[in-house]
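> tool_call: predict_assembly(chains=two)
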Amino acid sequence: MLFFSFFKTFIGKTVTVELKNDVIIRGKVHSVDQYLNIKLEDIEILNIESCPQLMTLKNSFIRGSVIRYIQVYAIDVDCEMLQEAARREYKELKKVAK
Amino acid sequence: MAGNVEQPLDLILLALDEEILVKLRGDRELRGKLQAFDQHMNLVLSDVEETALKVEVDNETGEELIKSVKRKMPMLFVRGDGVILVAPPLRTA
């Protein structure tokens, strides 16, 4: 749930998603779900030469499992809070496992 | 410090806020500071340098050249299904 909450804070912000087939898409996050499927708006394909057929897309739903990376702007991330949330989440996970 | 390491993921917890090396599927490696992780090994890294190994075939000789391409990213989410290993960085670079 940590990364689901993390990406919910990016709704309305611009991110760059790199897919496992090397397509790179920049767009504004419209929504995200628990599988980290992501819907992007106002998209732009950054390496259009490798996939010209995608040029006309405006919005896209991306299945979480085909994502390799998501680049975000560092200014949108509170590192201290994120680390604390990761520690808390891990503690919860261990508690449930016992 | 290492006294309470019982499970593999405990080591990742200790690496929070530290520089790590991540080996990924598709001949890629990342170095960066670990900001977050979960049980799937989804990660968030900051000040990341990616090294991707690419094979290029020389047009004249037909030789295969292995080229490493580096790029930097300030803040990066990495999906866990691509992660092969997480380690402290090698002190060579």
